[in-house]
Design goal:
Blueprint (H helix, E strand, L loop, with lengths): L1 H14 L5 H24 L1 H4 L5 H12 L5 H8 L3 H13 L3 E5 L7 E5 L1 H23 L3 H18 L7 E3 L5 H17 L3 H17 L6 E7 L2 E10 L4 E9 L8 H15 L4 E7 L3 H9 L3 E10 L2 E11 L1
Parallel strand pairs: 6-7
Antiparallel strand pairs: 1-2, 3-4, 4-5, 5-6, 7-9, 8-9
Helix pairs in contact: 4-7, 5-6, 9-10
Length: 323
């Protein structure tokens, strides 16, 4: 992570990107965290400096243990290390009997590196020592803070690394509805400037759903990823033959993963199974991505009017489709 952050900052400076005051402050926040993180990890790994291997040597052993068929060039790229340095480290490992080499099937000029049994024994001892240091650090925090810390780390990894497309659709549990209200209120305030009237509306919809929920004809789905609510949707009864889709939402961090489509598909499947003959929904013209999603699913615009809601002049829209 440290190398990644430094690379991004260096690249931005090199390209001469104009930065607003807001993005500059965010960059400083990242740099402060980077310094803190580097110091913290250095303290956690201090015991390794007193051992036979340096931190970089230990990282190379970790990568060799985690992947099969690595070449020296792979290690250079993965760890941003000089080829000459990696070659010397690998040579030292080979003299100690920690690694072996085999000719690469795809490139006869290169060798694939593998850990030997003694190498795996050394790696296991290093991993155990590192694990014990982290456990000791975590034990200094109350359990709720331990959970907050690990969830924050997962969040950073998700945002800066490759996006894992996996997520879970489930029924709501205690506490979910408060999160739904909070997330939607924050999203529409941040992205569209809507005022507290919208939060009040969302809270009323959720409260009505909880008080009057009929499982034979109503349903809510919660989308969850890494223990965090990232989306939701409600199907409620409008009248005897018509269902109403309400509050389809996907968190900004999870957009582009097809969650909105999936929530809509599940809603339509449930609606048909419940015996409804049509479905309606309400939205506004400014929610362009949502409208595209509804059109793709077969909804048609049946009514619209100019309104002043949530502190803004909006075009209220009703969409519908037969089932």
């Amino acid at each position: 992570m440290v190398a990644f952050v430094n690379h991004i900052i260096a690249k931005s400076n090199y390209m001469g990107i104009f930065m607003s005051a807001a993005i500059t402050e965010r960059a400083e926040t990242v740099r402060r965290f980077n310094r803190f993180y580097t110091h913290q990890i250095g303290a956690l790994q201090e015991h390794l400096l007193k051992a036979e291997f340096s931190l970089t040597e230990a990282r190379i052993l970790y990568e060799l243990g985690a992947s099969v068929g690595l070449k020296s060039s792979d290690l250079c790229q993965m760890l941003s290390l000089d080829a000459g340095y990696v070659s010397r480290v690998i040579g030292g490992f080979e003299k100690k009997g920690l690694i072996g080499r085999t000719r690469s099937a795809s490139d006869g000029r290169a060798s694939q590196i593998r850990l030997t049994d003694p190498g795996r024994t050394v790696l296991a001892s290093l991993e155990q020592a590192a694990r014990e240091e982290v456990v000791l650090m975590l034990q200094g925090l109350p359990e709720p803070q331990q959970e907050q810390l690990t969830q924050a780390m997962k969040r950073i990894q998700t945002l800066l690394g490759d996006r894992d497309p996996s997520y879970l659709l489930r029924d709501p549990v205690a506490g979910d509805m408060g999160i739904v209200v909070q997330q939607q209120a924050q999203l529409y305030s941040r992205e569209y400037g809507w005022n507290s009237e919208f939060e009040a509306l969302v809270a009323e919809i959720v409260a009505k759903y909880l008080r009057e929920f009929d499982p034979s004809c109503e349903r809510c789905w919660i989308a969850e990823k890494d223990g965090k609510v990232i989306g939701s949707v409600f199907v409620v009864r409008h009248d005897e033959t018509t269902a109403k889709l309400r509050m389809l939402y996907v968190d900004a961090s999870a957009r582009g993963m097809g969650i909105g489509n999936r929530l809509l598909e599940e809603s339509l499947r449930f609606t048909r199974h419940a015996g409804y003959r049509s479905m309606i929904l309400w939205t506004t013209s400014v929610l362009c991505d949502a409208r595209k999603l509804y059109q793709k699913a077969g909804f048609q615009l049946v009514e619209e009017e100019q309104v002043h809601s949530f502190g803004k002049d909006l075009v209220s829209q009703t969409w519908a489709r037969d089932l």
